[in-house]
Amino acid sequence: MRLAVIPARGGSKRIPRKNIRPFAGLPVIAHTLVAARAAQVFDHVLVSSEDEEILAVAEQYGGEALRRPPALADDHTGTLPVIRHAVLWAEAQGWPVAAACCLYPAAPLLRAADIRRAWEILAAGDCDFCFSATSFPYPVHRALLPEGSGVRMLFPEYFSARSQDLPEVIHDAGQFYWGTTRAWKEQERLFTDRARPLMLPRERVQDIDTEEDWRRAEILWRILSERPA
Rounded distance, CA 12 to CA 19, Å? Predict the structure, then answer.
């Protein structure tokens, strides 16, 4: 069986109550739950949280509540141990978990078709993880770091390099991570030669950590929702 796990703790600091804040008429986590159900690849969709309000909202939109231990709900706990906890819990219920997918709760641009495509890549058997990714809009080799009242180049050796001569660099799109049960349980590192990126166009990617991010995600959502399918 295949498991979806949505890690949705209640202690968001930069955007308080982010995971259930309204986005385009729904709690933002509802968009992830809708996409997970529409993908039609999961036997169970768990929402892992220590927050009763978040769990209640999740159940309202088709998620299954998994009460997370407080030790896995602080500001320093990463994604890997949370998904491992969910996989071990599912196995304790007698569910034969073959693969699990972490879906982030504040990812309203997530699409069911992308979840399915990533599952097909993982199911091919030549990787441990498949994750959403996109390209940087500007060459990172020419990145600047504010320093005092000025700036300095992170990679000054590329000052004279033409952008077309620099390699394309990609980054995690922060929407989903498919992984084998073994990889999640053994806490394998995510970004290695055993991980495959599913590339998404930049207009369908927006990490939401600040109010500016939230506003930009709303703009992108409106534009994309008006575009013919």
Answer: 8
- Go through 71-91 and write b for each residue having 16 or more CB atoms within 10 A of its CB, e for each that does not: ebbeeebeebebbbbbbebbe
Q: What is the pTM of this model?
A: 0.94
Instruction: Collect all residues with Cβ–Cβ distance below 8 Å to 102 and sequence separation of at least 6.
Output: 5, 6, 7, 79, 83, 176, 177, 179
Question: How far apart are alpha carbons 142 and 52 in whole angstroms?
Answer: 45
Backbone region of residue 144 per phi and psi (left: phi > 0; alpha: psi in -120 to 50; beta: other values):
beta
pLDDT digits (tens, 9 = 90+) for 34-75: 999 999 999 999 999 999 999 999 999 999 999 999 899 888
pLDDT for residue 229 is more than 70: no
Integer Cα distance of 111 and 114 in angstroms: 5
Which burial class, exposed, middle or buried, applies to 140 when counting CB atoms under 10 A from its CB (0-12, 13-18, 19+)? middle
Looking at residue 55, its amino acid is L
For residues 5 and 72, what is the distance between their CA atoms, to the nearest angstrom? 14
Q: Mention the CATH class of domain 2-134+171-226.
A: alpha beta
**13: pLDDT strictly greater than 90:** no
pLDDT at 142 > cutoff 90: yes
Sign of CA dihedral 205, 208, 211, 214: positive
DSSP-derived secondary structure for 139-178: -GGG-EEEETTEEEESSGGGTT--GGGSPP-EEEEEEEEE
What residue has token string 């990889």?
Answer: 183
| pLDDT, tens digit, 9 for 90 and up, residues 91-102 | 999 999 999 999
